[in-house]
Amino acid sequence: MHQDLRERIRAATEESGITKPAFVELLRLVSQHYDKMEATITQSVETRVLRDNTPIEAIFDSVTDALLSVGADGVIRNCNKVCARYFGIPKNKLIGSEIVTILPEARGQSLARFLSPFMTSVDDTHIESDGHTVQAMRAGSKPFVSEIRASKLEITDGPIFVISVRDVTDRNHAESALRENEERYRALVENAPDAIIVFDVDENRFTDANDNACTLFNLSRARLLKVGPDAISPKMQPDGTPSFGVRRGHLDRALAGEHPTFEWLHKDSTGREFPCEVRFSRLPSDERRLIRVSITDITDRKRHEASSFAQNKVLEMIAANTPHDSTLRAICRYSEKIGKRFKVAIMRLDAKSQTLSVEQAPSLSDSFKLCLEFIKVDADSLTCGAAVHERQDRITEDIREDAR
Q1: Beta bridge partners of 325
Q2: Between 21-62 and 3-16, two packed helices, what is the crossing angle to 10 degrees?
Q3: What CATH number labels 63-167?
Q4: H/E element holding 159?
Q5: Rounded Cα distance, 384 and 374, in Å
Q6: Beta strands in 175-318 (DSSP E)
Q7: Are the beta carbons of 110 and 152 closer than 8 angstroms?
Q8: Rounded to whole angstroms, how far apart are CA atoms 130 and 127?
Q9: How much of the chain is helix, strand and coil, in % rounded to 5?
Q10: pLDDT higher for 42 or 324?
Q11: Domain spanning 174-297: CATH 3.30.70.100
C-alpha cells in the first residue's frame, strides 16, 4: 500500500477511537492486499521489459555490420557482437572505452564534427550502396579500411550517435583484382594481331572492339558498336548461300562452350569484300550471352593457295601432254582467280617483227583483243610492249590513258 494512504488510514483510526479487534484486522488485510497488488504489478512490468528487450538485443547482434551507440563525449555506450570480431576487443571492454581507440581519425575533434560527413537522418529510408571510408583500428594497432555511416538521436541525457562500421578490406581487394583483370584483358585485346569484337547474341550487336577491328572494317569504334554482323557482311557467301537466315550452328556451338573456327566473307564500310577466318569463344557473363569473335583477314593466304593450286594444275596438264591451247587457257583462268576482277591475257612475241599478239585471253572481249594485236615492242609502246623491251615489270593505272 502506498505510504501516504497507509498514514492517513492510521490517523483516521486514532481520531475515531475505534479499537475493536475486528476493525483493526480488516485494516491489516486491506494493507496486505495492496502490498500484493503492488508486487504483482512490479513483477509484470519487469517481465514485460525483459521480454521486449530480448528481441532488440538479438536483432542488434544479428546485424552483419558493427553497430555502436556513442555519447557526445566519445564514450561507447553500447555495441553489438560484430564489434568484438571486427576490432578484436571483447564487447564488455569496448563498452565504456573511447571511440578514438577504434576510429583514430576522430582524435583531436568533437565527435559531431568527425561524423558530420557520414551523417544520415534516422527517418531517411533511401539506401546508398556506398558509404564513406575511413581507417579503423583492430587490437594490436592493426589498421583496416572501413565504410561508416552515422545518425544522431536526441535523448534526455544528450545526443547519442549510432555508428555503423563495415570492413571493406576484402571488397577492395576483390575490386582491385577485377580492375587488374579488366586492364589485362583490355591489353591482350588491344595488342592482339587479330581484329577482335564482342558480340551480344540477344541484342544482335557488338559491345566491344579493338583498334584492329575498326581498321579492318573502316569504321570508328562508336559506329562499330552500334551495328551488328549484317553491317560487315555481304548478302551472299562464296558458297552461294545467304549470309543470314541459314542456321550454320556456329553460335550454338560457341554458346555450348566450343570454339568453332570457320571462313567467312566480310566487307568494310566501302563495300570491299575480303575473306576472313573467324573464331568464336563464349565470354563469361551472368546476365548476357556474349561471344568473343576473332577475325583474321586471309586475303593473302587465299591468294597464295590459289596460286599454288594453279601451278600444280598447270604442271599436271603439261605432264599429261594436254594440248597447248588448253594449257594456256587454264593458266589464264587460274591466274584470274588470284584477284577479283582480274582479266588475263597471254601474248606471243614475234622475234622477227618485234611485235606482240594475243595467244589466249578467254575473259577479254573480241574488240579488246583486237586492240592488243601487233603491239610494237618499244620503249614508247603500250605497257606490255614497253615491259618486254625493258625486260621488267610495268604497271599502268588506266590502260585507256596508256593507249594514248
Answers
A1: none
A2: 180
A3: 3.30.450.20
A4: strand 158-167
A5: 11
A6: 195-200, 205-209, 261-267, 273-283, 290-297
A7: no
A8: 9
A9: 45, 25, 30
A10: 324
A11: no
The model's pTM = 0.51
Average pLDDT, the chain: 82
pLDDT confidence of residue 130: 55
**Residue in the structure block whose three cell numbers are 597464295:** 304
C-alpha cell at 377: 615492242
Q: Which residues of 243-269 are buried (b: 16+ CB within 10 A; e: fewer)?
A: beeeeeebbeebeeeeebeeebebbee
pLDDT band at 21 (very low <50, low <70, confident <90, very high): low
Q: What is the pLDDT of residue 11?
A: 62
pLDDT at 52 over 50: no
Hey, how many other C-beta atoms are within 10 angstroms of the C-beta on 196?
A: 20
* CA diameter of the chain: 172
Alpha-carbon span 198 to 207, nearest angstrom? 5
Length of the chain: 404
- Grid cell at residue 177: 583484382
Alpha-carbon span 391 to 377, nearest angstrom? 11
| Total Cβ atoms within 10 A of residue 54 | 10
pLDDT exceeds 50 at position 373: yes
Q: Do 63-167 and 174-297 have matching folds?
A: yes
List the domain boundaries for the chain: 3-59, 63-167, 174-297, 345-404
